[in-house]
Each structure stands twice: as C-alpha cells, then as structure tokens.
Design a protein that fits this description.
The protein has a single domain, classed as 3-Layer(aba) Sandwich (Rossmann fold), CATH 3.40.50. The N and C termini lie far apart (40 Å). 35% of the residues lie in helices and 13% in strands. 41% of the residues are buried. The chain is an alpha/beta fold and 263 residues long. Helix 3 crosses helix 4. The protein has a six-stranded parallel β-sheet, with helices on both faces. Strand 5, helix 8 and strand 6 form a beta-alpha-beta unit.
C-alpha cells in the first residue's frame, strides 16, 4: 500500500484471507488505539482496521483537522485501497460515527460503498444540533477537563498528569470543534444498511434522536440500546463487537426487507 495512504490506518499487516474488513473510527480525543483488543473479540474471519486520524498517535506531527468532510474526502481513497476488494463495514463511536457517515457518502460516490454502517453514541446528524447549549471546544482548560471526566471515557491517570493533559486537550478541543461546527448537507439517503447503538443513560443520545438515523438510509435500519452512559460500550464490548462483526459479514443482498425499531 502507498505509504501516504497507509498512514490512515494503525500499523499492522493486512490479512488477505479474512472474509471481510471492519474499519473503526475513533471518538473525540482518541486515536486508533481506542480499538486495541477488538481483533481478538471480533475473531479471525473479519479484519479489524482502526483508522488513525491526523494529529494524534503515529500522526502526532500532522495538523489537526476540524472538518468532518475534509477527513472523509481525504480518507475515502486510502480506505478503498486498504479494503482491497473485500466486503467491509464502518464502525464509529460518537465523533467517529459522524465521520463514518460522511465517509460512507464519499465511498458511495466513489462506487465503493460499505456493506453496513454501524454508528454509536451519536444523534442523527441531520437534526438541529449534535450538542447541547454548551460550546465545549471554547471552554477554558479546567472546565474542559471536567467535561471529559464527566463522560468517563478517559483514564483518570491521563487527566491527573499535566504532561499527558497538555497533549490531549488540543486534540479534544479540535475534535469538539469538528462536531460543533458540523454543517449537515442534504443529500439522497444512503443505500447502505445502518445500525445505531446508544447507552440508555446517555443524555446526548436519547432514543428518538438515535432512531432518526432511519431517515438517512433507504436500506434496513435497526436501533439497539445498551445500559450505560456515553461510553456504555466499555461494559458491553462483547455485544458491540458481535454486532460490528455481523455487520461486516452481512452483504446488502442478505439484509432482510423489514426496518426495525429500537430493541
């Protein structure tokens, strides 16, 4: 693979014998390492390919990007090359779900659509706002740290170390800017099945706002709720990875004709 394109993915050897691939996009403030351990849970028939965004981990020296469409446009060609003709699904949590949605549109235009889109912890992007009244990316550092703590998605030892916080906060701030300045573009619904996941105690992703993803696809849709807050998937990783694995192995031709509500 071209080295410039390869930088978009966690360093690993491709697995040409797998039946499908699962590309995973990280939440705000995270990198490809957020999906460390997923391969062991998903199993050998689906290759888990974590996406590495600019400005973090192995791409730390690159500028952060605060536009979802710019990331999607830059990632579409490398992802199609990395897919190497295999069926593939996209998974994204929170900001990663928004990126996965934009990326799916780019891949459809390129004639290389995923077989399934799995979005987690993210309200449907065509709704008026992805966030509450608070503009998180403009918060002072101390309040931004409090916001991160409340989400319970970042290890406490990271927040307790000034050196690590100095590295983390610019990434978090840029990612929240991406989400909070996102402008939805009215396009044809996706011809791709969508599964939407949420935590029942996540105030930013109530059931109706999650189920509204149904309006963005003409293919089968399902909404699934797990107990927990915004990072519910930490306690339900076995269930989440099983859903993602099944999505990657399921072609659009194998999808049922029904469109389900939340389960």
């Amino acid at each position: 693979m071209d080295p410039v394109n390869a930088r978009w993915f966690a360093p690993q050897e491709a697995a040409p014998d797998t039946a499908a691939r699962l590309f995973c996009l990280p939440h705000a403030g995270a990198g490809a390492s957020a999906y460390r351990g997923w391969q062991a849970m998903v199993g050998p028939d689906v290759e888990v390919v974590p996406v590495q965004l600019p400005g973090r981990e192995s791409r730390f020296a690159e500028p952060l990007v605060t536009s979802a469409s710019a990331i999607a446009q830059g990632l579409a060609e490398p992802l199609a090359e990395r897919a190497a003709g295999k069926p593939f699904a996209l998974f994204g949590h929170s900001m990663g779900a928004l990126l996965a949605y934009e990326l799916t549109h780019e891949l459809v235009l390129a004639g290389c659509p995923p077989v399934h889109l799995v979005v987690s912890g993210c309200t449907a992007p065509h709704l008026p706002s992805l966030t509450g009244d608070e503009v998180v990316h403009r918060l002072p550092n101390a309040q931004l740290v409090q916001h991160i703590e409340a989400l319970e998605g970042t290890a406490g030892e990271v927040l307790d170390q000034p050196e690590l916080l100095e590295l983390l906060l610019p990434v978090v701030r840029a990612d929240y800017e991406l989400c909070e300045t996102y402008q939805f573009v009215d396009r044809l619904p996706l011809p791709v099945p969508v599964t939407a996941l949420r935590g029942t105690e996540d105030p930013d992703t109530p059931g109706p706002k999650l189920r509204a993803w149904d309006e963005l696809t003409t293919a089968p849709f399902q909404a699934i709720a797990f107990s927990g807050g915004h990072f519910y998937l930490k306690a339900h990783l076995d269930g989440v990875t099983e859903i993602a694995r099944a999505a990657a192995l399921r072609s659009t031709r194998e999808e049922g004709a029904s469109r389900d509500g939340e389960t």
